[in-house]
């Protein structure tokens, strides 16, 4: 039966797409002073996928979306809403509309959502509300980023971390509710810890009238502050989401965190008493793909047969803003 509070929700399809070109740690050591051992020990990352100048965010996002739609066994014309979670659109005005066009999802309204590495989790919560209230039946959520565009490749503290990619899921109205609970948070007082900031210079148009014009500067990050923030706040927000879902950690089949740093994944799982074999991790091969990291890891685990129908997943994103959040859901319809 449908919940009295609204319609049930199921996540029925997943898809992903990454560039073909990889840059491993040894290759990166030719760019900055580092080594495979140094990067691997501190982050768990061994390689990352990078988009070339001809590849667009829409290219990655559209292919990931097509794969998710195919798994869900619906048509693009069945989609009511497309949400693109990204911090690196092809167009500053938004790229979701271009993806809608490429997919042929002629009935869908489309918009971008920006919450950095928390974007996919925030997108799940946003999509769920449209379904819960009965407004839409089929929602396509895409997490995609090409942060290689915005990395300072001479900054060893950040260039070792990021990769490019896209992941997507289809959420559908369902008689059986699989979306069990969530909690999302923001703290702007720590905004300076992780930035991709605009920097402008004064330009005088006429005497007495000036404007600012410039561009976005490369990513800057206080790695120690972000680490401390993540290991403290992420377990807390997952526990709150589990409380809302009325579920204990023992009932969680998979812990699916934003793929930022293996040390963070390990610390969070230990805090929650979730064994390592229940932690989904693929950052060794992809690095930090920002809003793409959770759906990319989910799709890989589903297609490998690790995540099975009905498995309960605790997913959490965290990053710039600062923002963080968690959702508890069961895979499949």
Fold and architecture overview:
It contains 10 helices and 15 strands. With 333 residues, it is α+β, with helices and mostly antiparallel strands. The protein folds into 2 domains: 171 residues, Thiolase/Chalcone synthase (Peroxisomal Thiolase, Chain A, domain 1), CATH 3.40.47.10; 122 residues, Thiolase/Chalcone synthase (Peroxisomal Thiolase, Chain A, domain 1). The strands form 5 sheets. It has a 5-stranded mixed sheet with strand order 1-7-6-4-5, with helices on both faces. The protein has a 4-stranded mixed sheet with strand order 8-15-14-13, with helices on both faces. The longest helix has 23 residues. It is globular and about 60 Å long. Belongs to the thiolase-like superfamily. FabH family. One of its GO terms (molecular function) is 3-oxoacyl-[acyl-carrier-protein] synthase activity. This is Beta-ketoacyl-[acyl-carrier-protein] synthase III. One of its GO terms (biological process) is fatty acid biosynthetic process. InterPro entries: ACP_syn_III_C, ACP_syn_III_N, FabH, Thiolase-like.
Can I get a quick summary?
The chain has 333 residues and is an alpha+beta fold.
């Amino acid at each position: 039966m449908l919940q009295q509070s609204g319609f049930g929700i199921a996540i029925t399809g997943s898809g992903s797409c990454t560039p073909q070109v990889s840059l491993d740690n040894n290759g990166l050591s030719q760019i900055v002073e580092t080594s495979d051992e140094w990067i691997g020990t501190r982050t768990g990352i061994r390689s990352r996928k990078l988009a070339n100048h001809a590849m667009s965010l829409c290219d990655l996002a559209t292919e990931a979306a097509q794969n998710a739609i195919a798994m869900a066994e619906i048509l693009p014309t069945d989609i009511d809403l497309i949400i693109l979670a990204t911090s690196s659109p092809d167009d500053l005005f938004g790229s979701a509309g271009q993806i809608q066009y490429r997919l042929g999802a002629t009935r869908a309204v489309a918009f971008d959502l920006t919450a950095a590495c928390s974007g996919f989790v925030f997108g799940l919560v946003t999509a769920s509300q449209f379904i819960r209230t009965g407004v839409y039946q089929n929602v396509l959520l895409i997490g995609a980023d090409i942060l290689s565009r915005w990395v300072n490749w001479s900054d060893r503290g950040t260039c070792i971390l990021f990769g490019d990619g896209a992941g997507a899921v289809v959420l559908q109205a369902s008689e059986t509710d699989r979306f069990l609970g969530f909690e999302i948070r923001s703290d702007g007082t720590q905004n300076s810890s992780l930035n991709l900031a605009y920097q402008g210079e004064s330009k005088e148009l006429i005497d007495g009238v000036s404007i600012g014009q410039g561009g976005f500067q490369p990513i800057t990050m206080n790695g120690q502050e972000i680490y401390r923030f993540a290991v403290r706040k992420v377990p807390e927000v997952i526990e709150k989401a589990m409380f809302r879902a009325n579920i204990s950690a023992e009932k969680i089949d998979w812990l699916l965190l934003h793929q930022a740093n293996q040390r963070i994944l390990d610390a969070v799982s230990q805090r929650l008493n979730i064994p390592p074999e229940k932690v989904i991790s693929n950052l060794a091969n992809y690095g930090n793909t920002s809003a793409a990291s959770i759906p990319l890891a989910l799709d890989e685990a589903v297609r490998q047969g690790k995540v099975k129908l009905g498995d309960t997943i605790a997913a959490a994103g965290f990053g710039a803003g600062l923002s963080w959040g968690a959702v508890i859901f069961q895979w499949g319809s």
